[in-house]
Structure formats: C-alpha cells, structure tokens
Write a structure and sequence with these properties.
- With 278 residues, the chain is of the alpha/beta class.
- The protein has a single domain, classed as NAD(P)-binding Rossmann-like Domain (Rossmann fold, 3-Layer(aba) Sandwich), CATH 3.40.50.720.
- It contains 11 helices and 7 strands.
- It has a 7-stranded parallel beta sheet, sandwiched between helices.
- It is globular, with a radius of gyration of 19 Å.
- It starts with a helix and ends in a 14-residue tail after the last helix.
- 40% of the residues are buried.
- The protein binds NADP nicotinamide-adenine-dinucleotide phosphate (NAP).
Length: 278
C-alpha cells in the first residue's frame, strides 16, 4: 500500500553518469519521452551544462546532484536529496561506469576498488534501495548499462569485463524475479561507443582502439530507451554487435582468449595512475 505521504511525491528518472557520453544521450531520450530527470555525476559544471542543454530543448524538469558513487554514503545522500525535492524514483538508469586497462597484477589497487565500487556496488545498492518502492507502485523500472565486454573474459581489462558480466547476470535474474509486476528491468549491452571512456581508462595503443569504430551515443541510447520501454530484457544495439553476441555463444571461450588478449593488450606500456579525468 502506498501511503498518502508517498502519493504526494512526483516521479523522476535518475541517471547516474548523466552529464556526458551515453548517460547524456539517455537523458535526452527520457526527456523526449516527457520524463523529469535527476542527473548524477561528480563534475558540477558538466552536470549543469547538460541540464541547461536539455531544459532548453525539452519541457521537463532537470535536477542535478553532484556525487561520487564510489563513496559508501552516496546512496543515502541521493535518497535524502529526493526526499527534500519531493520526488520518488520512477526509473533508475545505472549508467555510470569506469574501465581499467592493463595487466591486473600491475594495476593500481585503489583504481580496481573504485571500478568495483562504481560498476557493481553502487549499481547494486541503488537497485536494492529503489526496487521495493517500484514493486509497491507496480510501475517504473531499472535500466542497467553493461557492455559486450560482459559476454566474455577480457585479458588486460580483466576487472572491467568481469564487472560487466556481473551486471548482465544480475539484470537477467532480477528481470525474471519481477516478471508480471509491472516493473521493467533491462540491460543495455553496447559494443564500442564513441565517448571519452576508453581514453579515460588510458587505453590508447591497443588494437581494439585502432580498429573498433564504435556507434554514436545517440544510437546506443535510442536503442536502449526503446528496448527498455518495449519491455526487452537484453538490449544489444547494432546488427554487428548482435551477430557478435551470437558468435560469442557458439565459440568456446578457450578459443577466444588468445584473440582477446591480442586485441586488448597495450602495444605501448600504460603509464601509472594519472589525473587525466579533469
Ligand atoms: N564507451 C563505450 O565504448 C562503452 C561501451 C559499452 C559500454 N559502456 C558503458 O556505458 C557506460 C557509460 O560509458 P560512457 O562511454 O558514456 O562513459 P563516459 O563518457 O566516460 O561518461 C561517464 C559518466 O559517468 C560519470 N562518472 C564517472 N565516474 C563516476 C563516479 N565515481 N560517480 C558518479 N559519476 C561518475 C561521469 O561524470 P563525472 O566524471 O563528472 O563523474 C560521466 O557522466 C559505462 O557503464 C560503460 O561501461 C561504454
């Protein structure tokens, strides 16, 4: 039963990492669909620029909240912000994610922990927090952003590939659990997308960077949004990625591993940790 206090709240779509890249493109799709937005990211300036761009072209409310999702108390802060602004989470778009290139044994331990916290812990905590209310209301849903990387092991990006496998597995299982409740849970599984993501993980000399063209953020987001709204659980944008996903089911991983290692290995060794995000 929804209490009268809960009935006063108005719905909002939360997009983690909504300030740029795929998250920004998804924000534009949800705005186009008429949904009010709450965009989350660490850089306040980029958040505000994106919010102004969306508000200028769409008749929706766009709120921003600066937060680092790798910190343990970020979930509580988001919930407090929602309560103060009299909103409830109608859609949760778990988009923020980070990658890490290089040999696992030589990677910075803190950076691995941040990847685990952002790609898996924050996504899990936010989903666990907002899902019960969605189920009680019998509508809304969660769209997780995974990657084709989650469909196989990735030597030289081991933790990133493993984190996306977790996201795909979790989403498929939850989608089964909520079947028939009116709540939708989907996962978007893109191949390469043209954003600054790969440069940020300091992948520059790898063959996949040289040969992987990548689709636009708009295309990935449009397919993610329409698949989610149509009730699809697994959304793979683009015919090439769809064919790739079929091939990955047929070809044994033991045969794929040498190819993936060749494709993902840096030709020039990675420099140790740098502060190139800002
Ligand atoms: N690009 C690709 O080729 C590709 C392919 C498949 C899947 N994906 C997945 O798609 C998602 C989005 O990727 P993208 O390419 O759009 O990345 P991006 O361009 O690097 O954007 C990442 C977004 O996440 C935010 N973010 C990063 N760390 C954060 C943190 N600790 N707390 C809160 N927000 C944080 C960033 O803003 P701030 O830096 O201001 O925090 C930014 O808004 C990721 O999950 C990625 O794994 C990407």
């Amino acid at each position: 039963m929804i209490s009268s206090a809960q009935q006063q709240l108005t719905p909002i779509t939360i997009i983690t990492g909504g300030s740029e890249g795929i998250g920004k493109a998804l924000a534009l799709e949800f705005a186009q669909g008429g949904f009010d937005l709450l965009l989350l990211a660490r850089n306040q300036h980029r958040l505000e620029t994106t919010a102004s761009e969306i508000s200028a072209t769409h008749d929706v409310k766009v709120l921003t909240f600066k937060c680092d999702l790798t910190t343990q108390d970020s979930g509580r802060k988001i919930v407090t912000f929602l309560e103060l602004n009299q909103h409830y989470c109608q859609h949760l778009i778990n988009n923020a994610g980070t990658g890490l290139a290089g040999t696992f044994a030589k990677q910075d331990e803190g950076e691995i922990q941040q990847l685990v916290d952002l790609n898996m812990r924050a996504l899990t905590d936010l989903s666990r927090h907002f899902l019960p209310d969605m189920l009680e209301r019998g509508n809304g849903g969660i769209l997780n952003i995974a990657s084709m990387a989650g469909l196989l092991p990735g030597p030289y990006q081991a933790a990133y590939y493993a984190s996306k496998a977790y996201v795909i597995s979790l989403t498929k299982a939850l989608s089964w659990e909520v079947w028939g409740t009116g709540v939708q849970i989907s996962v978007l599984v893109p191949g390469p997308v043209k954003t600054k993501f790969h440069a940020r993980m300091r992948a520059r000399s790898e063959l996949y960077i040289k040969f992987g063209a990548g689709i636009s953020t708009q295309r990935a987001a449009r397919m993610g949004y329409s698949g989610f709204r149509c009730g699809k659980c697994l959304i793979i944008p683009g015919i090439l990625s769809q064919l790739g996903a079929v091939a990955l089911k047929i070809i044994p991983h033991v045969l794929l591993m040498p190819f993936m290692a060749w494709f993902l290995k840096a030709r020039i060794p990675h420099k140790p940790k740098s502060g190139d995000r800002f």
